[in-house]
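Our preliminary data section would be incomplete without showing what the modeling component actually yields. Below, a chain of 268 amino acids is followed by its predicted structure, encoded as tokens that our downstream tools consume directly.
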Amino acid sequence: MGANPIIAEGERTLHDMAWPGKRLLVLVTVLESRSRTCDRLVMVDEDPTRLHLEVYDTKSGLWHPDLGDLVQPDGWELLPSGDAFLTRQVKSAGDYWVLFRPKGRGQHRRQLGLLAPVEAIAAAREAAAVTAARRETQRESSSRQRERTETAYRAEFEEAVLRWLAFAPQHQVIADEIARGAVDRAAVVGSGRVGRTKQLTLDERAALAARAFIRHRHTDYEDKLFSLELSELDIDSDVGIHDVGDYREIKRTAHGEVDAFLEQHRGQ
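Predicted structure:
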């Protein structure tokens, strides 16, 4: 590449290319400073094997949306997807293409693995064997740390629910039941429920989780949902249960019932 001082000092990410003859017109994002980037079109004389391409395994062979048909470079082989350590090692070694299976109708494309030099894959496998015991120890340590962190969070969450409930002393047993149940329901890892969101404060999460648990366990909300007549819904339309007038009324009624339940148990 030419002696472009901005590009030479910046970090480049390949976004788009055309291949007119033997030269590549590459759109790169250049990091000029810690807080400023810019795009540059640069003509380079470069072997495609030096580029980190996303290629597709088609019936007629390898294909790239901009470069067209490609041939797997000599001395390259496929490292199948599935081993994160091997993938990171091969990528850090330098040259590779990411291989995908084209998406079918109604499907997403599927990553098959990396095409990379045989030597890079062999070196990655050797590194995996040498570091296997250490990495297993690290995984076990990380798992224990996650368990400790999760236990501490659930205890903190439960305490926040109890604070928000602020039940009278004679109702402490039911307050404990609600707090435990709300946390069990709302804080499931990976569930996307309110207990896992970072968009709300802990106290806001506690309030929503407690109200939801009370609505489901201490009102007739679920019974009304089960009896809700849905036979007139068109399953092919965009109308769902949340759009049904009866459902909205059930939700409003349950909201008032939760308020009444809280008032009853917060009073002396």
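The radius of gyration is 29 Å. The first helix runs from residue 5 to 9. Preliminary results of this kind motivate Aim 1 of the renewal.
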